[in-house]
Amino acid sequence: MKNLFKIISIMSFIIGLFSGCNPQGSTSKATPAENITKMIVLANDSIVPSSNDYTLLAWNDLGMHCMDGKDFSVFSILPPYNTLNAQLIKKEGISNKHIISGVNISYASATSLSGSYNTTSLLDDNNNLKTNFWSYVGLLFNVELENDIGFTGNHTPDATLRPLTYIPDNNWWEASAMPLSPYNDDGSKNYYPMVNVIAKDTSGNVLATTKVVLPISDEMDCRVCHGSISGNVKAKPISGWENNSDEEKDFKWNILRLHDQKYPNSVKDNQIALKLAGYNNYDNSGLYTSAKNANPVLCVTCHLSNALPNTGITGIKPLTEALHSLHANVIDPTNNQTLGSSLNRTSCYRCHPGATTKCLRGAMGKQSDIQCQSCHGGMNAVGKHGRKGWLDIPNCQACHQDGNRYESAVTNQATGSLRTALDIRFATNVNTPMSNISMYRYSQGHGGMQCSACHGSTHAIYPSSHAEDNIQSIAVQGHEGTISECTACHKTTPNTEIGGPHGMHSVGQNWVDLHGFSAEDDKQRCKSCHGSDYRGSFLSKAFSNRTFNTNWGTRTFASGHKVSCYDCHNGPLGR
Which of 175, 222, 253, 407 is the most buried (most CB within 10 A)? Predict the structure, then answer.
């Protein structure tokens, strides 16, 4: 790792090998002419023509990425890092629908709904620094990168179309490790920057386009307790508060003081391992002194994180265990409860994004009775020894099974134990992306479609409370929510009893005309979506207003109506 840092992101599981580059590119302010060109390009980003022969679906792999903020001079937990995935579907036919070669799929920055844009992670249009990451990336990660370039060589989205690469193992196109920061070029804060994704054939003809959000938050912030002006006596280092005028550096210095206070020999006892990893400048007296000597601390150098594998030192707690187990018993200064005793997302938003970002914003997050703890368990469960952070996470079938939808995936908050699945209709894929791991964001279903392509990113499952997340689904099928219309990816609606997503039948006039004795032949199958009494359930809700012609006249169903056998018949056996 001395001159070459190998990093395998759990978001992509692709090894990035980094070669030496100029560590600090130009920091000059964009010229007025450049800004005008940029605005002209981005002003037309939503009117690129698209044919009716292909559908392009793209998504952010996590639903929200975090970064340390503007400053990396003291310590770092997570660098600016964002990953875009996409699948291109040919609408004609029912086989070989995934386009995996012979096309160019590219991304470029797009204007947000506010009209602002984010085309660099270095300087805004007023020459203010968005982040100093590139000034310290060499010291932190043993790799030198040019400005606006991420660990796998991808560029911050800007006005230039930049390529995605097809990843056969995952059956998706990908641009990983894009270094995004939550600041528009005009300096305003934007946790939801957007990109255009464009598919072209080799002659340059546009096949399909889409516009998606790449969320990024810097709300991973500890100043509420560790800031020198927090007044939190229990968090005050014995050596005293740092009292740094820069609030972002201030709380970090205080944390390093506390770390040295609790583990005074942490550097001295691990110098051999540190040097083997290519870190030769850590001071034996501790992390605080090391950082004061212009050697910022990378937390995962000692504390393993599966977000940045090939990190950590044997015998030292993994990062997620160390942080969650320690802070589970910390008193939240806003409500005087321990963070681990809370049963709502407020405690999670104390450190995770966040009070402003509201990361849990999808269909589940919009429901007040579903919390972070509903899926992950309490903080002690998240930080328990032996749990593999970023890998041991909830699955869909813990809540969606046997025709039911539960409001909590865990059966025990203290242990985080998941409910046993009774069927696999809505299950994540087993051993995905590795043995004994089953993750939503790597799972696929109907026709090799990634779950995220149709349902949205983790934490931002369609429909989301943020308009930016819903733009793609509305463009593809005319309404927000799960990509559920067959014609989103097919020229015409196929006729099938069980061949649709999750074993669904076709939805549309053809099904009304031709479904025949499907219910009579297998009534049990219908219960999965239409309920045990066949009178409809949340799984049989119409996604949009529907009108059908039947033998008994026209039937109109409003969006949200729970379609049942009794809408047209006297139950499943009615005529």
Answer: 175
